[in-house]
Design a protein that fits this description.
The protein is an alpha+beta fold. It has nine helices and four strands. Bound molecules: glutathione.
Length: about 200
């Protein structure tokens, strides 16, 4: 078994969290290297593309969280074998990456500027993506995004929905998802209570 080290911020969200859950689901030991923002700033010049997460496999540093998630998902049996279902899964992963790019534009802003940027985000891209994720969920049958079962797409989506509904982003109403996409809110509860996810968080307490 290779040696795995995942470097990412010390919070239960973002691009790194679904990869951590998938590692746990696969029963694969990995070093969960959690860093503060200050440590990231100090270390980023040594990181490929100056970005986190970074997955080191036997010392080789690899970037791109969705690629990591597919890789670990394959090992965990959480990535579809059927090409169409795999494509459905990939679409969800890619759309989340697109949404994150829109969201991070408002990071670092303050006061009125932040409020204005977040309100534009809520009325614009967030509404588009939240409705879009609901549509993808319904295409998958309503319970899961692909393959009629838990896949890495569900891990990616539930982490994002949880963040949006928890009020982590100032000026983003915590009921936005419930109003626009009730199926997505139910999906969060479904995935949170999945034995795979329950076991992961139990392992961290
Ligand atoms: N496409 C990359 C994007 C990585 C990325 O942008 N990471 C963020 C953290 S989630 C980052 O390092 N941001 C630092 C910055 O932009 O200053 C991936 O999916 O891993």
């Amino acid at each position: 078994m290779p040696n795995y080290k995942l470097t990412y911020f010390d919070f239960d969200g973002g691009r790194g969290e679904p990869v951590r859950i998938a590692f746990h689901a696969a029963g694969i030991e990995f070093e969960d290297h959690r860093i503060s923002f200050e440590e990231f700033v100090a270390q980023r010049d040594a990181m490929p593309f100056r970005c986190a997460p970074v997955l080191e496999i036997d010392g080789t540093a690899i970037t791109q969280s969705n690629g990591m998630l597919r890789y670990v998902g394959n090992l965990a049996g959480l990535y579809p074998e059927d090409p169409i279902q795999a494509l459905y899964c990939d679409e969800v992963l890619g759309a989340h990456e697109d949404l994150m790019h829109q969201t991070v534009r408002s990071f670092g802003l303050e006061g009125e500027e932040l409020k204005r940027a977040r309100e534009e985000l809520v009325d614009g891209w967030l509404t588009t993506f939240v409705r879009g994720f609901e549509a993808l969920l319904q295409r998958g049958g309503g319970d899961y995004f692909a393959d009629g079962r838990l896949t890495v797409a569900d891990l990616k989506a539930f982490v994002q929905t949880r963040t949006l509904r928890a009020g982590v982003l100032d000026h983003v109403p915590t009921d936005l998802v419930d109003r626009l996409a009730p199926g997505l809110a139910e999906h969060q509860a479904r995935i949170e209570s999945d034995p795979v996810v329950v076991a992961y968080y139990a392992s961290r307490t």
